[in-house]
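so ive been stuck on this for like two days lol. basically i have the seq below and the ligand is flavin mononucleotide, smiles is in there too. i just want the complex predicted, nothing fancy, no docking runs or whatever. if the output looks off dont worry ill sanity check it later, just need somthing to start from for the group meeting slides
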Amino acid sequence: MPNAIKNNEHYMKFRAKLDNCKHYQKFLAYKDKVLAMGNDSLEKTIAVAVALCLVCAVLVSFGAVALKPLQAYNKNYDMKKNILDVAGLLEEGMDVDKAFAERIEAKLVDMETGEYVSNMNADDYDQRKAAKDPKQSISIPKEKDIAHIRAKAKVSKIYLVKDGGNIKSIILPVSGYGLWSTLYGFLSIEPDGQTIQSINFYDQAETPGLGGEVVNPKWRALWKGKKVYAETAQPELDKGSIEEAEIGEPAIALIKGSVDSEKMGAEYQVDGLAGATLTSNGVTNLVRYWMSKEGFAKYIAKIRKKGATS
Ligand SMILES: Cc1cc2nc3c(=O)[nH]c(=O)nc-3n(C[C@H](O)[C@H](O)[C@H](O)COP(=O)(O)O)c2cc1C
């Protein structure tokens, strides 16, 4: 049976039911009564306002439900763009979905052991949601919580950029408190587990022009080639409030002012954000936290041991 006839039949049945419904008949009678009232009538004003509210509520609810899949797709698309960006693979006009599928591999890491988790699907896993769920997270003792995040997910979602089986980049999710907000981003490192490739923050609410400069490409470019872990005893950092690091501990830090490349320890230092020392300290602390034993240090040590092909 053609669809048009079938739909028409359904409509006729629906109309017949509606015409037999006494509430609908009452509604029609009330509608005629209200429309016959003068425009100054209080009852008409209230009835029209209520009807308008109902129509708007139905439209907004319909919009929210109908647009949900599109919103989810856009969120996912944006995340893929951020990951390609921190991996240095994002190009103008590229097919983001295709490039992501071809170049990036998502993996889940057990934060206790640093091993990959194989019995969960990385694509369905939402680490930020897991961090808020007491069953899927671990609360961080205050003295260790330098990133001020209170809890971390037991399982982290990391991304690998591979080329012919060899790891080119390890992309780690990082988060921590700045001045006004929790900053969420990605840190991309070389397979040596020591050299930084890039950093980006995709979600933060620091002041634009001050702490919000964390998204400035010029500032982000300063991170390339910097080292994470102290290979030698670290000199005290100039005027910053960041303490020096022990050998093997994360030493990377934002300093007040500009880095003097001639000075010892410059490879562990990044220019602080002008007029935003508090956000800068937050960034230092969050990167140090996630690169410490509390964060990804165990996983990174394993990658280093197995070599770049793991
Ligand atoms: C409206 C307003 C917004 C600010 N936003 C930030 C910010 O996002 N990040 C930050 O570190 N400092 C911000 N500050 C400045 C801090 O209060 C503080 O003065 C600053 O971090 C000190 O950095 P400095 O020693 O580099 O000047 C803001 C100040 C004002 C008045």
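The chain has a mean pLDDT of 92. The first strand starts at residue 104 and ends at 110.
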